[in-house]
């Protein structure tokens, strides 16, 4: 059986943010219907008129209370969720941890937070993460974040 995609909902833009500290990056276990139980970096939806950088700063602060800086573009993935009838373009941003200890400030969206690196990724990964790992941009992101140790 073929899943029905709700094209009337359109394509949304999601922002995923690598928050880097000491060669590791922050990840959370997702909660809710969209990717529940999977792991990804903090992030959310691009709001009308907002830059990718502004979205990254806002979403990380709202979700974790952490302040970030040196926010920069990392990659983009095209993510279709057939079972949910959703389609996202995910813009992956890289950033440096500036201040604050991570806390779960939106418990309806995240159940766990932890620092990881590419050698100890938690499972299962959120679909856009799996797309990122297969993308031609992944090695460049991995090199840049690993060099920050």
Automatic annotation (TrEMBL):
<dbReference type="InterPro" id="IPR000086">
    <property type="entry name" value="NUDIX_hydrolase_dom"/>
</dbReference>
<dbReference type="GO" id="GO:0016787">
    <property type="term" value="F:hydrolase activity"/>
</dbReference>
<dbReference type="InterPro" id="IPR015797">
    <property type="entry name" value="NUDIX_hydrolase-like_dom_sf"/>
</dbReference>
<dbReference type="Pfam" id="PF00293">
    <property type="entry name" value="NUDIX"/>
</dbReference>
<dbReference type="InterPro" id="IPR020476">
    <property type="entry name" value="Nudix_hydrolase"/>
</dbReference>
<comment type="similarity">
    <text>Belongs to the Nudix hydrolase family.</text>
</comment>
<keyword id="KW-0378">Hydrolase</keyword>
<protein>
    <submittedName>
        <fullName>NUDIX domain-containing protein</fullName>
    </submittedName>
</protein>
<feature type="domain" description="Nudix hydrolase">
    <location>
        <begin position="10"/>
        <end position="139"/>
    </location>
</feature>
<dbReference type="InterPro" id="IPR020084">
    <property type="entry name" value="NUDIX_hydrolase_CS"/>
</dbReference>
């Amino acid at each position: 059986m073929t899943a029905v995609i709700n094209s009337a909902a359109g394509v949304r833009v999601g922002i995923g943010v690598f928050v880097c500290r000491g060669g590791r990056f922050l990840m959370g276990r997702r909660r809710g219907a969209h990717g529940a139980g999977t792991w990804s970096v903090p992030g959310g939806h691009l709001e009308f008129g907002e830059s990718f950088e502004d979205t990254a700063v806002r979403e990380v602060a709202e979700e974790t209370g952490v302040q970030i800086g040196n926010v920069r573009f990392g990659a983009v993935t095209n993510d279709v969720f057939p079972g949910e009838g959703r389609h996202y373009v995910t813009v992956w941003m890289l950033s440096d941890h500036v201040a604050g200890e991570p806390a779960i400030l939106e418990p309806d969206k995240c159940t766990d937070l932890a620092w990881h690196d590419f050698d100890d990724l938690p499972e299962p990964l959120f679909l856009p993460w799996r797309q990122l790992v297969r993308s031609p941009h992944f090695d460049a992101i991995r090199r840049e974040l690993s060099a920050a140790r």
